[in-house]
């Protein structure tokens, strides 16, 4: 397993925000800062940390939440579903054996005791403040009652499958920091288990708040097991992918029974949220027939094909209440898939897309009846002026259920740069209330992302999410910007690097033209050179002419001088003072 | 001179849009497209082309507009200003000789005959339709009267110094396609003349509509000469940089006389627009004293320092009318510099920034009195929710004069990625009427951009500008998106690459995981693999189930079947049809 690049930046350290009363501590990254040139000390800045305590992939993470779950007294261990060769796909069938169990033993899953619901929404509605909620409140630096009430109202979710005790609770909702998701997963074409665990750790190092395992290739069960056991963040999946593998890739052979079995398999493993394309109704499919790009959601196209082939309604829709009952036993959250999302700006905000959204709103409320947490997925490809309507419509129809969007991309003409085209749309949609943004990498539409692409995608989406937090006036969001700007004005180069989202890249770019160590303390950079550095000149002005009051006095003298001249007096002769860097 | 990467993409060719009546032809890039799988032919797509005919740097471009300028009969050739050793900076002084003249001979500049104004605004106001306006109308695919009237009203400019006849006319105004500017230029730290010409050609290859030469280093006059003689796009400068070089970097030693001489030097060379920081008034400087990042415009900080040192009003302001008279003789456009723009999101939309904007509005109208074309520069660093106010305020105060902004960056925390942070703000500000966007490269705040950075900056800004065109509903803007989306749905991979803003990168990313030639025609990519390709499944659905009407019939059958069941009849047994890729 590669650990290259996983080292922490020297100025970054792991610290904790503590709630001693409840024995809780939330990991944060503390960024040490140098003193200002004036001698003023700069307090270290603490920032949200997603990377967890770190783990050796073969050992996994400690079961952080196990005691909390057990302490509520409403779950039971049980034997769990029998492993099936097909769980790991046809390659496992071909070789005649499944991959080895995690640590060699069949896991013992938990589920709700009969008649109980173990979802955070259930507790929140009952007025119970869970450890998960307290953890989230510490992490978001807000009142725990805000957390409880938003979860109770369905406006926020804390994805937290009781079988994923390794995860550090986080919240997705528009009252909180905007979150980002990174997709990983193998495909039939490429990738190994070790690579996927590596991508998981890499994505959370750079700031992914959740990770979706979208594997569609070999050893799909085992890959997921390794990912979950090593993940400090919630894991999402799209179970229809695995179900399709189990029926040999023949969409029309899919059945509710195969799907249900797959869902239970994944609930027992600890998947925290699942994308369910239950809104792709048979009668909506013809609405896509004249689109430029048809149906571009994999799950959407699979279910549309199934509906037409069987002349039947989508089985995910007809069995939705049963799904809710299952999810309530494990606290799996719905991520209601937008199977009919537009795949081109030409198809944006069309009848098919909005018809499905109406159904997703209906399903949101049905899930809430079972106390199941829900978020709703959104597009896709949307021209910039039509982006806002998407989130406002979703928020209204779905009574504020968190919106979770893929971008959207605001133009189709830049394959290779779709992390950028989509970050533009993502900032706009998050500003108006989208709670989580699914990242898009430079490889979108072209191929599978490698590690560099994952990093670029995550950082680009941290930018979009943070820009939206600033735009929403989220409390404290501006602190990092202000600290970095102050460091910039004071030529504290090392602090500029360590406060940035990607310190190593910032430093490398700086060093490309001015590599020597003294340049790290120089009062200029290679962009302008010493003489043309505006910040240097601006600082010199402050040093020469002092405070605002002193400067106003000079400006006032000018007026006096004009009055003097106007009255026929002699012209005031200014002293010549050198401003800027003498050579 | 390196020509690597300057080759045209094989599917791209130079074509012309012609106006036979007036003997004009506008170069465009024609993108050849394959037939659809159905056999339908796809017409080649013509897109805006900024790269000009191409030139050998030592030869320069042909004087495209020379006859048009001469034909108006209002200009005269004259001896021109005497070259001065200082024109090429102190290194030339030290070595005791200026660099060689362009092609060994002192150029003979043109200027307006006494009493004449030779600006496009002057002609437009007089009801004269110039060849430049006709060229622009062909290029923008709009009515020439729109061009003339917008220029007459000051809402658009056609930067076209009569001494830069090599340039292909282009227009900057909110009724037209959003434009982008790329900055190049050497600094005291790095770069040579050859490198700058190379960057110019590189930037226009990727789509820069104008280029600013921000050189502050050695051989500043000669570098500019080479750039202009090879530039098919308007060239902008900030003459205060060169003026400061002439006074040995001592801002307080600047005088109106040195500045005026520098401006004339640059007018004679053919600079098309100049940034003039005439809005930095003495009384505004104290408003920046308590900012987080002070004054971050180089020109702004130089003039602020000068004002305070001299206890005098900014000489650019006090001599503004004289500048207008000079500009009117060459058709140089003002780019009124925002010397007090915010350098951090904390300083956005503050009193200093908006006070200066009030003055820029006053100066806009004074320039218009002399028929001088004007655009107004804007920020900088602005949080996303405050971006719109900037352009709306500028448009209102400046009576619609074109706005030209640097980004703005919507967060300060991502040095190394500021092309992205600023493209987000740029899209928003362009959507609401900004006419030109000054690019930001990944090296912003850190160092000087290399060729890769220039390309990344230009393409990122093409994305922002194009996304804004789409959002504004600009006629025809969606054609490239729709053509690419159609190619995508039809698995015409080669067309997807050639229609993209950066074909080589799109193709390289595709080939990283599926390099073999057959993959170029495969009905999937490595992202999803063959079985999970939604577009493939979506196409299969169309192939299997036909048109919208046919699909509606199936959906209708379902309803009939439900009625049938409801009436106690037997259940309809569907045929099983395989959807998706059989193995």
Structural write-up:
Chain A is of the alpha/beta class and 583 residues long. Helix content of chain A is 41%, strand content 11%. Chain A has 21 helices and 15 strands. Chain A has helices spanning 66-71, 89-95, 120-125, 131-140, 144-153, 193-206, 220-229, 239-246, 256-269, 298-310, 315-318, 320-330, 351-369, 387-397, 418-431, 451-471, 478-489, 493-499, 503-513, 534-545, 548-566; strands at residues 12-19, 24-31, 45-48, 75-77, 110-112, 156-157, 172-173, 179-184, 210-213, 235-237, 273-276, 333-336, 374-378, 403-406, 436-438. In chain A, the strands form four sheets. Chain A has an eight-stranded parallel beta barrel, surrounded by six helices. Chain A has a three-stranded antiparallel sheet with strand order 1-2-3. In chain A, strands 4-5 form a two-stranded antiparallel ribbon. In chain A, strand 12 (333-336), helix 13 (351-369) and strand 13 form a beta-alpha-beta unit. Chains A and B meet through helix 10, helix 15, helix 16, helix 17 and helix 18 of A and helix 10, helix 15, helix 16, helix 17 and helix 18 of B.
Uncertain spans of chain A, ≥5 residues at pLDDT below 50?
569-583
Please report the number of helical segments of chain A.
Answer: 21
Question: Gyration radius of chain A, to the nearest Å?
Answer: 27 Å
Q: Largest inter-chain interface?
A: A-B, 148 and 150 residues
Write a concise keyword list for the protein shown above.
homodimer; 583 residues; alpha/beta; eight-stranded parallel beta barrel; 21 helices; 11% strand
């Amino acid at each position: 397993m590669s650990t290259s690049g996983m080292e922490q930046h020297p100025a970054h350290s792991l610290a904790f925000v503590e709630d001693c009363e409840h024995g809780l501590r939330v990991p944060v990254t503390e960024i040490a800062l140098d003193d200002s040139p004036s001698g003023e000390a700069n307090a270290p800045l603490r920032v949200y940390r997603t990377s967890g305590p770190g783990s050796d992939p073969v050992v996994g993470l400690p079961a952080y939440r196990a005691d909390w779950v057990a302490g509520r007294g409403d779950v039971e261990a049980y034997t769990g579903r029998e492993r099936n060769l097909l769980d790991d796909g046809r390659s496992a069938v071909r070789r005649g054996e499944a991959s080895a169990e995690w640590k060699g033993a069949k896991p013992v899953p938990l589920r709700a005791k009969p008649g109980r619901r173990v979802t955070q929404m259930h507790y929140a509605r009952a007025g119970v403040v869970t450890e998960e909620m307290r953890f989230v409140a510490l992490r978001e630096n807000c009142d725990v009652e805000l957390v409880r009430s938003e979860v109770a109202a369905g406006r926020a979710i804390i994805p937290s499958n009781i079988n994923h005790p390794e995860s550090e609770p986080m919240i997705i909702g528009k009252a909180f920091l905007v979150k980002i998701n990174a997709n990983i997963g193998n495909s039939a074409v490429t990738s190994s288990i070790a690579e996927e665990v590596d991508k998981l750790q890499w994505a959370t190092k750079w700031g992914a708040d959740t990770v979706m395992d979208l594997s569609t290739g070999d050893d799909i069960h085992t890959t997921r097991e390794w990912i979950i056991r090593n993940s400090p963040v919630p894991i999402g999946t799209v179970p229809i992918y695995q179900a399709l593998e189990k029926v040999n890739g023949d969409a029309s052979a899919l059945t509710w029974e195969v799907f249900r079995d797959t869902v239970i398999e994944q609930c027992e493993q600890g998947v925290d949220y699942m994308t369910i394309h239950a809104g792709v109704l048979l009668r909506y499919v013809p609405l896509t027939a004249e689109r430029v790009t048809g149906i571009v959601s994999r799950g959407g196209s699979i279910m549309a094909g199934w509906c037409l082939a069987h002349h039947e309604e989508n089985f995910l829709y007809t069995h939705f209440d049963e799904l809710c009952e299952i999810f309530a036993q494990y606290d799996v959250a719905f991520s209601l898939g937008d199977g009919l999302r537009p795949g081109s700006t030409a198809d944006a905000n069309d009848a098919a897309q909005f018809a499905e959204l109406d159904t997703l709103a209906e399903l949101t409320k049905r899930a809430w009846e079972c106390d199941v947490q829900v978020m709703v997925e959104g597009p896709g490809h949307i021209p910039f002026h039509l982006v806002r309507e998407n989130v406002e419509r979703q928020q209204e129809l779905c009574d504020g259920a968190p919106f979770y969007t893929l971008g959207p991309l605001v133009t189709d003409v830049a394959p290779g740069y779709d992390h950028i085209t989509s970050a533009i749309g993502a900032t706009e949609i998050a500003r108006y209330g989208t709670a989580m943004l699914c990242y898009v990498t430079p490889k979108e539409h072209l191929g599978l992302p490698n590690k560099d692409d994952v990093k670029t995608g995550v950082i680009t989406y941290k930018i979009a999410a943070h820009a939206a937090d600033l735009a929403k006036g989220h409390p404290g969001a501006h602190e990092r910007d202000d600290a970095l700007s102050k460091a910039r004005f004071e030529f504290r180069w090392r602090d500029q690097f360590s406060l940035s989202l990607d310190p190593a890249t910032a430093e490398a770019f700086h060093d490309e033209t001015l590599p020597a160590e003294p340049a790290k303390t120089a009062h200029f950079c290679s962009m302008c050179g010493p003489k043309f550095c505006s910040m240097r000149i601006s600082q010199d002005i402050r040093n020469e002419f002092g405070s605002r009051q002193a400067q106003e006095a000079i400006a006032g003298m000018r007026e006096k001088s004009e009055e003097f001249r106007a009255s026929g007096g002699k012209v005031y002769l200014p002293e010549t003072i050198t401003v800027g860097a003498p050579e």
